[in-house]
């Protein structure tokens, strides 16, 4: 194995046996000439003989260690076009390479070829420099890919001065590349950007081009017609949607509109029937678990206890990761903590002792990852994927696993979450298969800083998974996070709140940016909101987001004994979503790491 040779050479180097170290590096290069591990041998040998660096730059320009060399050479002399363009091509995801791209754009405009501009545009795009990407794509080959990113980049930068050009570029794709996938994407952007009357025409074009998009387009069209007060036409389209596409998620959206109207009129029989149609016919819709849960509640309210129990069981079986699976489990009497007793529970957490095998990368990489050789694994995986303009689902997940090992929790969690947004069918299926794996959920709901959290949880007698769930929602475990309004750190503590807590506790010195201080302040405040509301975790968590004054007003305003109804009546959309997200986090942590819950859910599979 090449890494054994690399480590052996490193051992000799550390003991000052340089002759033997060099010999082993040379053996490595000779025995494994195409292996990315050899790039590190070139890097090490180059410290003593610079000719090896020259060869390494030519053979392995995508390897991070070789890219370090290129950066150093450019620092000494930036006017080296071949090195500049090499980094632009091979460091697609590296934000630091944007300085190189900037230098190329500012100093080599005449020398750059259309394919070079496309490469530069791709780099800017992947590092979210959309305005600069648009400028580069303007000079690249006029392909549908480049034209779409040109227009979309300007749109993402909210460049209102270029609105007319954005429209023109999207339309140019429709005329010159009518059968491309970008033509369909362009139509969808034009629908969003256009007034309703014009958008209707674009919706018709989408339906002509793509059968898959017909249901969603019909729903959108009906909503636009309603805006234009063309109610009769809208009703016909809604009926067509239900008749032709009863199982599509767009139909579920329309059905849920009817459910809400029926509930407002206290017509629970009608609400129950329409919710049932969603739960049965639209199982893939994100609305399905919500519809199922309320269907179960209404069945129970009407005295249909057996039907109610079956519905709750099916919510758990078909949507085990959802907030409503937790609410259903409580209705079935599971010991998983409810709003009124959750803080006192201290779950027994079980974590795997061995790392799982990542789904992407070479066998050498997978071995390094499983052995916990995280730096070596990261270098190798970057070398293997640096030229990819778009990660596959498996590559994206593997990259996210590596980010977790290096403390980039926010990036990792968001990257895993966004895997569901892949467009083509095979990648969608790949994502669905990945979701069946335990390692997917453990990565999406990791346990960083767990020991520190557990210590504070014991001190304040708070459920550690609830603290973890608040933390995940607040910052995705990123202690450097700071919100636009000044909330800081891993628990997103406001400076004024931190000052108030320090006065209450007579603390003279604390730093919101200090990880332990931030956890302490956040846990103290969560304990405070629990005490304020008689240990009701629903009201405590809502207070953490919206403040105690708002929550106290809502308690007076919505005099309901049903906590599920209270959640739905929270007037702040952000707080309503926050509450559901935090307790969804809690449920997922419980079902992943609590053995009793994990095994019970296994039976439902």
TrEMBL record:
Gene3D superfamilies: 1.10.530.10, Tetratricopeptide repeat domain. Pfam families: SLT, TPR_6. Keywords: Signal. Residues 453-564 form the Transglycosylase SLT domain. One of its GO terms (cellular component) is periplasmic space. InterPro entries: Lysozyme-like_dom_sf, Lytic_TGlycosylase_superhlx_U, TPR-like_helical_dom_sf, TPR_rpt, Transglycosylase_SLT_dom_1. Coiled coil: none annotated. GO terms for molecular function: hydrolase activity, hydrolyzing O-glycosyl compounds. This is Transglycosylase SLT domain-containing protein. It comes from Atelocyanobacterium thalassa (isolate ALOHA). The lineage of its organism: Bacteria, Bacillati, Cyanobacteriota, Cyanophyceae, Oscillatoriophycideae.
């Amino acid at each position: 194995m090449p890494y054994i040779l690399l480590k052996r050479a490193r051992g000799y180097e550390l003991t000052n046996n340089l002759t033997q170290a060099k010999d082993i590096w040379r053996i490595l290069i000779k025995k494994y000439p195409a292996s990315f591990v050899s790039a590190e041998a070139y890097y090490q040998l180059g410290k003593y003989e610079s000719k090896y660096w020259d060869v390494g730059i030519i053979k392995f320009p995508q390897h991070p260690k070789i890219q370090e060399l290129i950066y150093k050479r450019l620092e000494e002399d930036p006017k080296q076009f071949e090195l500049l363009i090499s980094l632009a091509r091979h460091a697609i995801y590296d934000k630091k390479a944007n300085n190189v791209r900037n230098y190329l754009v500012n100093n080599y405009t005449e020398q750059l070829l259309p394919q070079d501009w496309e490469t530069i545009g791709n780099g800017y795009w992947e590092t979210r420099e959309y305005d600069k990407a648009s400028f580069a794509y303007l000079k690249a080959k006029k392909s549908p890919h480049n034209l779409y990113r040109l227009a979309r980049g300007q749109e993402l930068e909210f460049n209102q001065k270029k609105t007319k050009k954005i429209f023109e570029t999207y339309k140019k794709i429709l005329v010159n590349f009518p059968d491309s996938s970008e033509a369909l994407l362009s139509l969808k952007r034009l629908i969003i950007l256009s007034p309703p009357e014009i958008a209707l025409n674009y919706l018709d074009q989408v339906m002509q081009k793509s059968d898959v998009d017909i249901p969603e387009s019909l729903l959108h069209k009906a909503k636009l017609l309603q805006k234009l007060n063309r109610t009769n036409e809208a009703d016909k389209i809604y009926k067509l949607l239900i008749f032709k596409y009863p199982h599509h998620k767009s139909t579920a959206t329309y059905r849920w509109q009817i459910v809400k109207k029926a509930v407002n009129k206290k017509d629970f029989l009608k609400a129950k029937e329409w919710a049932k149609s969603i739960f049965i016919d639209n199982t893939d819709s994100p609305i399905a678990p919500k519809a199922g849960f309320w269907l179960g509640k209404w069945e129970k309210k009407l005295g249909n206890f057996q039907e109610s129990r079956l519905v709750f069981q099916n919510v758990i079986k078909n949507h085990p990761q959802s907030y409503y699976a937790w609410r259903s489990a409580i209705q079935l009497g599971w010991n998983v903590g409810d709003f009124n007793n959750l803080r006192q529970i201290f779950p027994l957490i079980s974590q795997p002792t061995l790392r799982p095998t990542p789904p992407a990368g070479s066998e050498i990489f997978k071995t390094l990852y499983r052995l916990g050789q995280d730096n070596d694994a990261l270098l190798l995986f970057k070398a293997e994927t640096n030229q990819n303009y778009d990660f596959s689902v498996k590559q994206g997940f593997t990259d996210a696993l590596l980010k977790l090992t290096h403390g980039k929790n926010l990036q990792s969690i968001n990257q895993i979450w966004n895997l569901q947004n892949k467009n083509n069918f095979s990648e969608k299926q790949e994502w669905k298969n990945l979701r069946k794996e335990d390692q997917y959920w453990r990565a999406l709901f990791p346990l960083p800083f767990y020991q520190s959290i557990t210590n504070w949880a014991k001190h304040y007698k708070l459920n550690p998974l609830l603290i973890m769930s608040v933390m995940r929602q607040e910052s995705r475990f990123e202690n450097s996070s700071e919100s636009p309004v000044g909330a800081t750190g891993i628990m997103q503590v406001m400076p004024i709140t931190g000052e108030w807590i320090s006065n209450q506790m007579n603390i003279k010195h604390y730093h919101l940016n200090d990880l332990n201080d931030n956890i302490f302040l956040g846990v103290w405040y969560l304990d405070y909101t629990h005490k304020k509301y008689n240990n009701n975790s629903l009201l405590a968590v809502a207070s953490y987001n919206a403040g105690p004054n708002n929550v106290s007003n809502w308690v007076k305003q919505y005099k309901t004994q049903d906590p599920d109804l209270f959640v739905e009546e929270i007037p702040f959309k952000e707080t309503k979503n926050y509450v559901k997200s935090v307790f969804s986090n809690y449920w997922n942590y419980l079902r992943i790491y609590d053995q009793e819950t994990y095994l019970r859910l296994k039976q439902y599979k």
